Amino acid sequence: MSEMSEMTRVTLVLPVKLWEEVKHTVPKGQRSRLVSEALKTEIIHRKRRAAFEHARQVGDEMLAKYGELPSCVEDIRQMREERDGELTGLH
Q1: Are residues 22 and 34 in contact, defined by beta-carbon separation less than 8 angstroms?
Q2: What's the rounded Cα separation, in Å, for the pair 86 and 56?
């Protein structure tokens, strides 16, 4: 069954000024869709923030456990040079 066919009716409490602005800005018949899309967007943002916060916490735990790890930039540069040398026959 599609998402649109499974609907429920809810009651929301909104500030009066906000609802007046919605009524003046969004035509009847489109207001529920506006609220639905806004809620979906906010849920996505909250999940992303939670995931970012979790990743930050894991990073902090890794730093506390292992300390600052050396940079791998030079190692990667060297591996690329070796690969490029092999591909061009210069190595």
Answers
A1: yes
A2: 39
Q: 13-47: per-residue pLDDT in tens?
A: 999 999 999 999 999 999 999 999 999 999 999 99
Q: Evaluate whether 74 touches 65 at the Cβ level (below 8 Å).
A: no
φ/ψ of residue 26, rounded to 5: -110, 125
The SS3 of residue 15 is coil
Query: Rounded distance, CA 28 to CA 85, Å?
Result: 66
Position 5 scores a pLDDT of 75
Angle CA 44–7–48, to nearest 5? 5
- The whole-angstrom separation of Cα 54 and Cα 24 is 41
Residue 41: predicted pLDDT: 98
Find the angle CA(21)-CA(25)-CA(26) to the nearest 5 degrees: 115
